[in-house]
Batch of 2 targets.
Target 1
Amino acid sequence: QLVESGGGSVETGGSLRLSCTASGYTHVYTKYTLAWFRQAPGHEREGLASVTSAGVTTYAERVQGRFFISLDNDKSTLFLQMNDLKPEDAAMYYCAASVIVPQLGSRLMRRPYNHWGQGTQVTVS
């Protein structure tokens, strides 16, 4: 089960760190991919960042250099460090898991992920 936390309200330019429990996948499967997505009202759900079981990360261009995905040392918790937040970053943020490692070009697409959390809301004013 994926459970996100850490969302909230922040001012423009501020930072937040989102967390997602991931041990149900990282401690069970030898190969997996974890990712963060977001969805704002009236918009499609978009992939932001992913990390594979080998530690390879991928970022969407719009968050490259501002957002950072990581796992803790125990690989139990997935994080998304978000810096220099902008009003357009406001959305519901979801973590997702896949028990495969998709092709590089697919890691920020919804299709490979069949496990999703309930989301955590981020507001930027």
Note: Residues 23-26 form the longest helix (4 residues).
Target 2
Amino acid sequence: QVQLVESGGGLVQAGGSLRLSCAASGHTFSNYAMGWFRQAPGKEREFVSTISWNGATTVYADSVKGRFAISRDNAKNTVYLQMNRLKPEDTAVYYCAARSGPGAEVGRDYHYWGQGTQVTVSS
């Protein structure tokens, strides 16, 4: 079992930045690819980014490419999502997730999920 706890969400003005963190415990963190997803009110959950177990491979949704950066520190059992040039449409609850094997862009491929952290971007 892997426990995931997100932090770093909050209220920010458009154009600003936030860094989300997701701390993992319970299993060897480096065994897992990690992903970030988000869900806005009234919308389906959507993929944001994923990173391989060693950080060598990253994938981004087109909507965040060039603005967001995913990274991980296996020594700290933590994955990060640096979000720059935020837009009101980035407002959502952001979730981190873990899966064995390579990174994936589909939520149902992930085995473990955090509780989410709210990000609100004002215009």
Note: The CA atoms of residues 24 and 77 lie 5 Å apart.
